[in-house]
Amino acid sequence: MINKQFDIVVFGASSFVGKILCEYLVNEHKEANLSWAMAGRSQSKLDTLKKSLGSNANAIPCLLADSMDEAALLEMCEKTAVVISTVGPYALYGELLVKACVETGTDYCDLTGEPQWIRRMISRYESLAVETGARIVNSCGFDSIPSDLGVQILQKASLEKFGSYCPQVKMRVVKMKGGASGGTIASGMNVYKEASRDPALREELKDWYSLCPEGHEFIQRQKSVDCELDTDFDSWAGPFIMASINTRIVLRSNALVEGFYSPDFLYDEAMLTGNGKKGEKAAKRLARGTKVGFVLMAVGPIRWLVSKFLVPKPGEGPSPEQQMTGHYELGFVGTTAESESIRATVKGDRDPGYGSTAKMLAQAGISLCRDVDKTEVKGGFWTPATVFGDKYIARLQKYAGMSFEINGAGD
Ligand SMILES: NC(=O)c1ccc[n+]([C@@H]2O[C@H](COP(=O)([O-])OP(=O)(O)OC[C@H]3O[C@@H](n4cnc5c(N)ncnc54)[C@H](OP(=O)(O)O)[C@@H]3O)[C@@H](O)[C@H]2O)c1
């Protein structure tokens, strides 16, 4: 391991999710001998944050860097083994940091749910990351850790039990309680804004395999769930908004896993709405709402009105009480080529997007510097499932309120 001043720098420490993450590292999860610093563009915001964290934070250094100041980012990256970034929308503020990490061989993880930006970063920086040894890991929050690692544990269990991976897996959101922050909404709105003026990008966003390596040969037609009765879960199901990023990450994992889960791997996600007439109505409402939402958000003035008056602003998000009382449960079903089935469940405490996401991201940064050997995992753009192994899952179960369980073979 290269000797750097810090193990981790948290860039965007004063963001909504960054504050929760720093609180977690300072007062909840004290990783032994971890040297880390908080970083951001505003000294006064960092000072306020440090004060709010109490005396345990007195010794944590603060670094200043603007995401548009390449020299400051390079200087920051030279000092640390890993950068955790919560500065988003990443498509607006993220590129120079990825570039600085790649140039200095610094490992990096973030919370982006913007597939078009990940694609751009892979095209521009992957070959240099391979040379310098920087491991870049996007989407280390609720999107897409539970999906990607849920599929991974299911596939490992299938290999052990049936001797083969499942060519078909689905994830269903069984329960979920939480809210959205201004930063997440701004990132989503920016995808619509970019897509509304770029027809090629609209096509790219429809491409299930947009994050797979160039020259991939996947042709299997993937399915998006609209409204359907799911007999595996005895429930109606409608679209799950995060499927647009999670499916791309899981399909990239399939491409990067040695030997593939399957060259014809099929993966979909949906949200359960309950059984009977009530469940059916809720699934139809969800499907209609999602379609109408997509159409409306493509219209600039409507996007502006919604951002201005209806949704949280950047820096705002769910209340501490909402974060603490939030939770989620995701169910996975895999089917082998011989029609055997196997199930897994991933659960988490706190609201998925913030309370839980902050813990997942913090542990991703720690795992990158403590558990993922540079000689075993080389530089490049990895997915959570292809860079992190059992040690990370153990961390999430021990320190981040999550559980990963195999429920055994189905009928
Ligand atoms: N994957 C997931 O599950 C998940 C969950 C939650 C959030 N997210 C994503 O995470 C990101 C953060 O969300 P959030 O709600 O915490 O956002 P937020 O509160 O709006 O914070 C954005 C951060 O970016 C910083 N920033 C903006 N421009 C900058 C610049 N030029 N230089 C340096 N820093 C700059 C802001 O600095 P100041 O503090 O100084 O204003 C702030 O710290 C978003 O992209 C969101 O989509 C993903």
Task: Write out key terms for the chains shown.
14 strands; seven-stranded parallel beta sheet; 20% strand; seven-stranded mixed beta sheet; alpha/beta; 411 residues; 2 domains; Rossmann fold; binds NADP nicotinamide-adenine-dinucleotide phosphate
Can you give a write-up of this model?
This protein is of the alpha/beta class and 411 residues long. It folds into 2 domains: 6-142 and 355-399, NAD(P)-binding Rossmann-like Domain (Rossmann fold, 3-Layer(aba) Sandwich), CATH 3.40.50.720; 145-352 and 402-409. Helix content is 46%, strand content 20%. It has 16 helices and 14 strands. The protein has helices at residues 16-28, 43-52, 70-78, 90-93, 95-104, 115-132, 145-162, 182-196, 199-206, 243-256, 276-297, 300-310, 320-325, 352-370, 384-387, 390-399; strands spanning 6-11, 36-40, 62-64, 80-85, 107-110, 135-137, 168-177, 228-230, 235-238, 266-274, 327-335, 341-349, 380-382, 402-409. A 7-stranded parallel sheet has the order 3-2-1-4-5-6-13, with helices on both faces. 47% of the residues are buried. The structure holds NADP nicotinamide-adenine-dinucleotide phosphate (NAP). NADP nicotinamide-adenine-dinucleotide phosphate binds at residues 12, 14-18, 40-42, 45, 66-68, 86-90, 93, 111, 113, 139, 141-143, 181-184, 187, 314-315, 317, 353-354, 357.
